[in-house]
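Re: duplicated header lines in exported structure tokens

Our pipeline writes sequence and tokens for each protein into one text file. With two proteins the header for the second block appears twice in some exports. Here is an export where it did not happen, for reference. First protein block:
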Amino acid sequence: MKGDIGVIGLAVMGQNLILNMNDHGYKVVAHNRTAEKVDEFLQGPAKGTNIVGAYSLQELVDKLESPRKIMLMVRAGDVVDSFIDKLVPLLDKGDIIIDGGNTNFPDTNRRVAALKEKGIHFIGSGVSGGEEGARFGPSIMPGGSPEAWPFVKPIFQAISAKTENNEPCCDWVGNDGAGHFVKMVHNGIEYGDMQLITEAYQFMKDGLGMTHDEMQSVFIEWNKTELNSYLVEITSDILGYKDTDGEPLVEKILDTAGQKGTGKWTGINALDMGIPLTLITESVFARCLSSLKDQRVEAEELFGKKESIVEGDKQAWIEALRQALLASKIISYAQGFMLMREASNENGWDLNYGNVALMWRGGCIIRSAFLSNIRDAYDIDPELSFLGSDSYFKGILENSMSAWRKVAAKSMEVGIPMPSMTSALTFLDGYTTARLPANLLQAQRDYFGAHTYERVDKPKGEFFHTNWTGKGGDVSSTTYNS
């Protein structure tokens, strides 16, 4: 009996996905560039299962039933292209290659087109949930060649996480790089969520002078509210974890955060598409700032930086902080969905935003209770342009506004940096302001560069230029896109 699917790459994610597939009755053929890794896997975690090994790509291909389905769980970039180049001569028309890594979506666009010419289908699939998710049920976001989906669908939906209604957190996202784009935005929102939580932690620790046990208790309670989510849950675990000397381990961790690029890609695409992804981009910059550790230590001494204590009723501040975190979190998701909408329009993907929310409901890092409310919002209005306009989320944002402003203002007053939480508030203020000062900005552009402007008392699309000084001339530069 031949294998149902082959997996290349036996790092922890690859191994756990293979074991997950085996648990659901699929025969998996495992391959790694180093034969020793295959042996270690077969004699270790895969011992006693139906998983079989392949020590060459030819052996892998020979052991699979047609159409062959081969999933790459390798480092994104050139490694993926290298394996594709080696696999193509061994495959037949109609076979399927799947990239399950964190790939930048233009690479998936390119690979889908190139392999289509050879008669081979390609799927670029986001996989979220980390090691545990891969093993017991990740969120899976496949896109690429639609002809391939029926062959992969039973496997992917079987191994994916399930909602409380037993719905699989996996569905077809769209053509070409749609799956990897949605996974990229997922990771961008993840950056934002994590940064927001760290800002709340710093406000409690440095502003309110709370102990780690007190903060752990707060996050446990918050997880019983609308903030119920994986990241809030693990934060409570982290804050309660003690080192061997009984002190909180988290305070012994160097305050420099790493990143692998997906948050940066999200910000770059937002800039390219003209979407104000302010919160997520600030969270990326916050990680960049954290890396300047030596400079920050010197600057604190140079400026004599001291954070003031936040005075007042501690419980009232904690509740205000909860509301500010919740409201900011909504803005993070809202901006992410704005970016997906623009990308869908530009690329003709026809994304189903309710389905995206469903795919994120379980298994993934940003899974949270209110993703069900996001799904409901897009079921009611598939053309919803701003998540905050939905009645449920609008109500939370309005009810949280006073507390949100209170926390933002106090953070500025006492010197606690909260870049993502304050930028989220500023975004909403800008989004809900009918007339912004961009009229003055455009006048400046016309003054020094003859870039023209539109008038509120004339039809849109009619452009004007003013010789502001009487010396600049009446010839304009080019019109602009707003």
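Second protein block, exported in the same file:
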Amino acid sequence: MKLTDIETFVVGNPPPHFGGRYFVFVKLTTDGNVSGIGEAYCVPFEPHLVAKMIEDVFDRYARGQDPHDIETLWRRVYSSGFTQHPDLTVMGVLSALEMACWDIIGKEAGQPVYKLLGGRVHERLRSYTYIYPREGDQTDVYHDPDLAAERAVDYVAQGFTALKFDPAGPYSAFDGRQLSLEALDLSERFARQLREAVGSKADLLFGTHGQMTAAGALRLARRLEPYDPLWFEEPVPPDAPEEMAKVARGTSIPVAAGERLATKYDFARLLDCGAAAILQLNLGRVGGLLEAKKIAGMAEVHHAQIAPHLYCGPVVGAANIQIATCSPNFLILEGIEQWGGFHAEILKTPIRWEEGYVLPPTEPGLGVELDEEVAARHPYTGTMLHLDMTGHPIG
């Protein structure tokens, strides 16, 4: 079996844009006419250039190769251009290609990917969602703790047992910093009012995006501890796990991190210094499914858990489901509400969500198929990045 063809899709995500402005998908096809799909997460270039990067890497390292040879493909791409370092751009590209190879491998074997990576451990996967705004909101749910508490009650009624929110304010290219007293007060109000609203029916996941220094994060953590969050997410920038470890040692709240990391090498540093108890690897950036399985195994040794991250499209979501299903130390899965809306429309068969849990698929491969007609009707024509940081210091 040989890989022969590639097609990329830059798909605009319609309003309300939950999951980002667009999704970058790839389809690989073999000489036996078996196809697999993948998705790249948050490569920091405009998406049409990202699609060309994916095509370039395919032509250099994957065309004409057997998709089963994941380790060979991985090492060649990881070392491309004399790099051999966790480069987030290269790893986003590689993740999409590797994901599509696994989809092909599973289809050839007639098995879900999780059956080929150790087998099914979990019958269903606990999921969480951000507290998202709704059309017609009179205030901003990200800054109004009263509205957020009201919305949290609605989500619990749907079946969710964990909710994420991030009221600490904008994140900047000049972080970390000390949060203002106003931001600290607002964060504490959110935690208090959400806990009062949901009681013990739902875990609270306090999200931040590396805004703080370790000292600043500990100031915030002391305010949050009375409300018992399940985690404190990426409190300091991801480039200094030793600083994040200071936060982990100084608070009773488990620290979660990993959205902006790639490869076992990044995660080994995180684990070795005790910086995080919960790893939020994103399958569209971390280096693919096999790399994620290795990281999950490393985490087991440290008695750490995985909580796959999702703020992109449903193909990464499908890969997250595969790795979660076969990992003994899986904790919880990020979704975007109930996996409906455009995340369902872009797939021929939506991901199955019932009463707070995702049900792993039994179909071969990743268990999802891209609806190419829907993709063709929603081209993204802009040049913006998937996510942006504020470009000036925040006082």
